[in-house]
Design goal:
The chain starts with a helix and ends with a helix. It has a single domain, classed as Orthogonal Bundle (Hypothetical protein af1432). Helix 6 packs parallel to helix 8 and helix 13 crosses helix 14. It has 18 helices and no strands. The chain is mainly alpha-helical and about 290 residues long.
Length: about 290
């Protein structure tokens, strides 16, 4: 890796050890008991308190109060817990200033992509991978944060293009920095020892020529990414529209599905309590 490329990774905080350990546990290799999971989490009192708070929220509330971390883990389940740990970690370590236009855009787009990816996965009969798609969607553009933190003033033309929407910014980034956010994001997640799916999704989203063994899930994340822009901006440029049409074929969605996302998805999200929790965590309006 060149020295110039390295500087973008240095701007990012070290992911907390507790979060890194939980996120590195592969779902298909889960030979860890809830008790062991409790032992990992409880060394971080702040994370423990937040998990208990959410477990006792209206989202998961039952007739009795959730007083122990083990009860909360049992209630949430491992898949939900992984997503929740990442959200809580990101809101603490990576959120940036709530008044910063870049971070306002970035978290709006990333959170919307995450929820869309989870929903698209379920709609495409991949409910087993829905939480993995959620995390991959949340992290897919993380390289933008690394570039922005390295030189905020120099990134302003890209920020303007992101806010306007409608066209990809990878060529603009490569012209300015010699690398784009996909390359940098993948390197960052690999450095943090995140699972291969999340690294590959960061590197290969918005491509049809995917080399990753997780191709089907990356197609889902890319579809969610474009639908999120369609919802936010109201239209895509011709290249984006063609790519979305190709992705819809590959994910087995239909025109009726796309119409649902354009017209009804956000109304349904206003009733989703985890979505509301995310808006509060990151201080954004979606």
């Amino acid at each position: 890796m060149s020295q110039g490329f390295e500087q973008y990774l240095k701007t990012m905080p070290i992911i907390p050890d507790v979060a890194a350990r939980i996120l590195s546990i592969a779902e298909d290799k889960l030979d860890i008991s809830f008790k062991e999971l409790e032992e990992i989490i409880k060394v971080d009192p702040s994370l423990t308190a937040k998990i208990l708070k959410i477990a006792n929220s209206a989202m998961y509330a039952r007739q009795r109060e959730i007083k122990s971390l083990q009860m909360a883990i049992t209630l949430l389940g491992f898949k939900n817990l992984k997503s929740l740990v990442l959200l809580l970690t990101a809101s603490g370590s990576l959120a940036g200033s709530r008044n910063d236009p870049f971070f306002q855009y970035f978290w709006k787009h990333s959170i919307l992509t995450a929820f869309l990816a989870k929903h698209v996965a379920t709609r495409c009969n991949r409910k087993d991978a829905a939480e993995d798609c959620f995390i991959a969607g949340l992290l897919h553009d993380i390289g933008q944060v690394a570039i922005y933190n390295a030189d905020r003033q120099r990134y302003q033309p890209v920020v303007a293009a992101l806010q306007q929407g409608g066209s990809p910014v990878e060529q603009m980034e490569a012209g300015i920095y010699g690398a784009d956010h996909r390359e940098i994001g993948a390197s960052l997640l690999a450095r943090w020892s995140f699972p291969e799916l999340y690294v590959d999704a960061a590197r290969e989203h918005q491509s049809l020529n995917i080399t990753s063994p997780h191709k089907a899930l990356i197609f889902i994340v890319s579809t969610a990414d474009l639908i999120g822009e369609l919802i936010r901006v109201g239209s895509l440029d011709p290249a984006g529209s063609r790519l979305l049409a190709d992705l819809i074929e590959r994910t087995e969605l239909g025109e009726n599905d796309l119409q649902y996302y354009e017209t009804s998805f956000m109304a349904d999200m206003q009733k989703d309590l985890l979505f509301q929790e995310c808006r509060s965590l990151f201080g954004i309006q979606i």
